[in-house]
Amino acid sequence: MADPSSFAAPDGCRTHHLYLRCRVDFASKSLRGTVALTVRAERDHLRCLVLDTKDLTILKVVVDRQEAKFALGQRHPFKGAPLEITLPFELGKGQDMIVEISFESSPKSSALQWFTPEQTSGKKHPFLFSQCQATHCRAVLPCQDTPSVKFTYYAEISVPKELVALMSANRDGDLPDPEDGTRKIYRFFQNVPIPSYLIALVVGALESRKIGPRTLVWAEKELVDKCAYEFAETEDMLKTAEDLAGPYVWGQYDLLVLPPSFPYGGMENPCLTFVTPTLLAGDRSLSNVIAHEISHSWTGNLVTNKTWEHFWLNEGHTVYLERRIGGRLFGEEFRHFQALGGWRELQNTINTLGSTNPVTKLIPDLKEVDPDVAYSSVPYEKGSALLLYLEQLLGGPDVFIGFLKAYIQQFAYKSVMTEDWKAFLYSYFKDKADILDKVDWNAWMNTTGMPPVKPTYDMTLSNACLALCQRWIKATEHDLCSFSSADIKDLSSNQLIEFLALLLLENPLSVSHVKQMQEAYNFNAVNNSEIRFRWLRLCIQAKWEDAIPLALKMATEQGRMKFTRPLFKDLYKFDKSRDQAVRAFQQHRASMHPVTAMLVAKDLGPDGQKA
Ligand code: BES
Ligand code: ZN
After folding, report:
1. What CATH number is given for 13-204 in this structure?
2. Is the CB of 589 inside a 6 Å radius of any atom of ligand 1?
3. Domain 463-610 adopts which CATH fold?
4. Which atom of ligand 1 lies closest to the CA of 315?
5. Nearest Cα to 50, choosing from 145, 160, 147, 185?
6. pTM for the predicted model, two decimal places
7. What is the mean pLDDT of residues 101-114?
8. What is the pLDDT of residue 605?
9. Partners of residue 20 on adjacent β-strands
10. Considering every ligand atom, which ligand is closest to the CA of 134?
């Protein structure tokens, strides 16, 4: 079984350790240095080795102190170029070699976003962050960029001395750079084997606050106190996760709040979760993202998908655990409310992608498909719905967590495929094979569209959202005056999110409906990003011109793809804002995250390509 997203051939040899030494150069927007890979042959007579690269300059390759011949193959549109290294000798099965590569990254690396001082909140210092998942580690350094290979790492990073460098690892101190008095070298070790996509680096004027016994929150100083308040539940969540999934093996669990262009809600970089500042709602209402990233410490980072086709193993189990944590901390009713919201989100996604779209399969075929293009909520929500369905079929939450714990123990430090997961499920529930045989596996795993069965959900917290949504869609022009702020005074932030999400599943409202909704609920004044995002979509879909500047502002002032892409798409669809959307994209493109810019360009069709 090969990884369609990588040129590496792990059946020939595998990386066990990576030693990175590099210099972060803000002037040339590049990382320059060496990476030394400890590579073990998996078979006899090994004569060559292929690594992944993307837009890298390769200067030199040395194998066990002997210079080696190398060549870069043809560049693939999204996979990058294979680096083919000819070994100066033959390696036998089980033997190790050290392959040291001198390299330089490109200023247009798809893994890195470089900021000038003006683009930061402090305005004084430059900033850099990486995002390697799914297949961008190869745009930072040459490696076997497939999640089927795991290695430990050590790194020494030289940066301007007024800045801080952090990685997805434990900190091992800093020292003056002996080669350059204006610089400092930060050192890191990661002693738990990780896949390449979990390598991460950030450099900036960062400060920290301690918010728990094993947690610092890092951010630019303007934001760090707000972050300390927002993420105060972290240690409770970590303890709950350990109770559900087993011991936390990574040592530190720090949080890093990135600039607004960070393309995801969160990223589970080991020892240092990266998060978007759009989680800073002020009321901790978006903390499920922290529960989610914490959960990856088991599902994803310990038990890892072998290829991106089995991404649902990472995300489906993580969403399931995230909601179990929510259930422990805020009650089972809340857990079911979130899970039903997830089912509705899946419906939403499948409506948009189309029910015969091949990426709506739980296990998609990624041959010649860019994982960033295939990315959607399907692996998250179809995956976690399957697990909830199995929980209900097999005897409830207590029984099912036993399975999940055993699965984690069985496959910790390994990479797995769906077949491994399913075989372990059958062996764990061997006395319940008759029940498992009733599951329509083919429909769940290999069929497009919605799943064959819907789990059962407690409706306590959802009912109010459904009822208010129904009132709005049934309201005629005459009924509009009956709506007032009293309608929502007892709804939580999460219920408001759900109410708006339900309306987005329906036909667009009329302009007078959304105007009246603004009159009654004043959603324009809400800063909670999840509420604001859905509200502005609703307004643009209702063709309310007054909302155009607000939607353009949100689409461009933050770059979380979950928000930015649909907002740009809606603005592009509306004839009154189409040109403005294209112009805003042209204006901002150069300062956008490279992956976000690539995907928004695709979303805007021919106009985006021209931009
Ligand atoms: N690992 C993902 C983010 C990711 C996935 C980055 C694939 C690149 C490629 C992270 O754990 C995640 O799922 N984030 C979600 C959080 C949500 C499901 C609570 C997000 O960003 O919205
Ligand atoms: Zn995730």
Report:
1. 2.60.40.1730
2. no
3. 1.25.40
4. 13
5. 145
6. 0.99
7. 98
8. 85
9. 35, 155
10. 1
Nearest CA to ligand 1 atom 10: 267
Ligand nearest to the CA of 262: 1
User: Is the pLDDT assigned to residue 285 strictly greater than 80?
Assistant: yes
593 in contact with ligand 1, CB cutoff 6 A: no
Evaluate: CB of 293 within 6 angstroms of ligand 1.
yes
Residue 611: its pLDDT value, please? Answer: 59
pLDDT value at residue 609: 77
Q: Is 563 in the pocket of ligand 1 (CB under 6 A)?
A: no
DSSP conformational letter for 187: E
Residue 146 near residue 6, CB atoms below 8 Å = yes
601: preceding bond cis by omega (within 30 degrees) = no
Domain range 207-297, CATH architecture: 2-Layer Sandwich (3.30)
The CA 499 to ligand 1 mean position distance, Å, reads: 23
Domain ranges in the chain are 13-204, 207-297, 307-458, 463-610
Mean pLDDT, rounded, for 2-9: 98
Q: Which of 129, 258, 267 to mutate to test the pocket of ligand 1 (most atoms within 8 A of CB)?
A: 267
- Which residues participate in catalysis according to the annotation? 293, 380
Whose alpha carbon is nearest atom 20 of ligand 1? 265
Label residue 405 by pLDDT band (50, 70, 90).
very high
Q: Of 1.10.390.10, 1.10.8.60, 1.10.260.40, 2.40.110.20, which CATH number belongs to 307-458?
A: 1.10.390.10
Q: Tell me if residue 330 falls in helix, strand or coil.
A: helix
Q: 401 alpha carbon to ligand 1 midpoint, in Å?
A: 23
Q: Over the stretch 446-490, which tens digit does the pLDDT of each residue have? A: 999 999 999 999 999 999 999 999 999 999 999 999 999 999 999
- Ligand 1 atom nearest the C-alpha of 289 is 19
Distance CA 254, CA 256 (A): 7
Task: Give the strands of the sheet with 272-275, arranged side by side.
Answer: 207-212, 215-219, 254-257, 272-275, 266-267
Q: Indicate whether residue 133 lines ligand 1 (CB < 6 A).
A: yes
> How big is the chain, counted in residues?
611
Position 470 scores a pLDDT of 98
Q: Which amino acid is at 583?
A: R
How many CB atoms neighbour CB 27 within 10 A? 6
Q: Is 265 in the pocket of ligand 1 (CB under 6 A)?
A: yes
Q: What is the mean pLDDT of the chain?
A: 98
